[in-house]
Design a protein that fits this description.
globular; about 70 residues; single chain; Conserved Hypothetical Protein Mth637, Chain: A; alpha+beta; about 40% strand
Length: about 70
């Protein structure tokens, strides 16, 4: 799953699904010390009803566009 993260937002929520099927997500955490990635993983775990350990950021951990793998 491709995700375009927008850190430092008012609240964590899905904002839109873009034409290329990238999911744009607002994240209510600062992009420092991995806080935004942790918040993103927590949000996705809740949305997909899986454990946080089943979500891995495959690439883009330090960037806005990330490739994320979710397993059951």
């Amino acid at each position: 799953m491709r995700i375009k993260a927008r850190p430092n937002a008012a609240k964590t929520e899905i904002q839109a699904i873009m034409e290329d099927e990238t999911v744009k997500i607002n994240i209510a955490a600062k992009p420092e010390k991995n806080k935004a990635n942790v918040a993103l993983i927590k949000f996705l775990a809740k949305e997909f009803n899986v454990e946080k350990s089943n979500i891995n950021i495959i690439s883009g951990a330090g960037e806005r566009v990330k490739l994320v793998k979710i397993t059951k």
